[in-house]
Amino acid sequence: MTVVNQTEPAAKPFAVFSTRHFGYAWACGLLWHLCRWGVAFLGTYLVNDMTGSPRMVQLAGTVLYAPLLLGGVLGGVISDRFDRLVTVRVQLLALIPLTVVIGVLVNSDRLEVWMLYVYMFLVGIGWVTDMTSRRALVFDLVGEARLDSAMAMESLSLSMGMVLGALIGGYAVDAVGIGASYFCIAGFLLLALAALAPVTTPATTRRTASKHPVHDLVEGVRMLRTNRPLVGILGVTVIANFFLFAYFPIIPVLAEDLDASAFLVGLLLAGTGIGMMVGSLIFARLQPRRRGVVYLVGLFAALALVVPFALSSQYGLALALIIGSGIGSGFFGSTQSTLAVAAVPEEARGRALGLLSMAIGGLPVGMYALGELAEQIGPSRALAFNALAGIAVLTVWIWRHREVVDMNA
User: Fold this and answer.
1) Distance CA 27, CA 54 (A)
2) CATH code (residue 304)
C-alpha cells in the first residue's frame, strides 16, 4: 500500500484505501462483522429451533448486545489508554477457541440454551472492543481529511458483513449443519486476526495514560452533561437501536409465516445489509455536507418501511421492503460515528465511541421489549407497532434537540 498525504481531501470514495494500513484494518472489520452477524443468525436460528419461543429468541439477541450497554464507557477508556491494535488482537484470540467449543457442543448434542447465551454475551464483549478500539484505530490511520470516506467504508463493511454472515449462515445450516457452521465462524475470526498482521500502531496516536482510569471514566460520563450535540446524537442512536434494529432476532419467527427455507431466512436477514451497502456507497460517492440531515432522514425512512415489512405476507415484497429500509439505515450508519467523534476533542474519541456503543446498547433492551410484546400480540403486529412508536419518539427528540439537524461534521 502507498503512503499518502492525509491532509489532502479524498477526491474519490475509495481513495481512502491508499492510506497506509487502512485496507488491512478495514478487512479485519469486514471479517469481524461477518462473524458477528453469522453468530447472531446461527444463535437466533438455533434458539428458535430449540425453544420455539419469540421471547427466548429475542433474549438471544439481548445477551449478544448487552455488553454495549454495560461496557461501552469502560471500552472507551481502554481504547484511549491502551494500545488499540493489541486490544483488538487479544479479543480475536479469545473468541476463536470459544467458537470452536460451541461447534463441538452442537455436534455432540450437548449444547444447552444457557451455554449459547453465555457465548453470545462474550461475542458482544468483542463487539465493544471492535467498536471502541478498532474503529478508533481507523481514525488514527486515516486522519481528519479522509474521515468521511473511512466511516462510509466502515458502514459498508458492517453491511457487507451482515449480508455475508446471514447468507453464509443460512447456506451453511442447510449444507453442513449448525455445528460445522460455527467452525466456519472460527475460521473467519482467524482470518480477521491474520488481516491485522501487517498493521502497526501510528506513532502520532494520543493516549491519556498520565491520568487515572477512574478520572477518564468520569470525564466520559461528564460529556453527557456538557456536550449537547453529542447528547443529541446519542439519543437518536438509542431510538434507532431500540425501535428499529431490535427486529433482527425475530426474523426467523416472521419467516415461518412466509414458508422460507433456512437460506431464504438468511437472505431476508441479509436484505437489511444489502440496503445498507447501497446507502453507504451512495453516501461515499456524494459525501453530502448536511450530515445531520442525512443521519435523520435515513433513520425516518428506515423506520417507516419496517411497518409494511412487518405486515407483508409475500416473501418477495418483504425482501424488497427490508432492502429499502436498509438503504435508509446505510445513510444513518455512514454518518453516526463521524458526527460523534466530530463533537469531541481528538483525545476523547475512544470515550465518545464508548458512549456511542452504550447508546447502541439500547438494542438489547429493545429486543427484549419487542420479544415480550410479540408474545402478547404476535410478532408482525408487535414489529409494526414498535416502528410506529419509534417514528413518534424520534420526532419528539429532534424537536427538543434541533442542533443535530444542523451538524455538518
Assistant:
1) 34
2) 1.20.1250.20
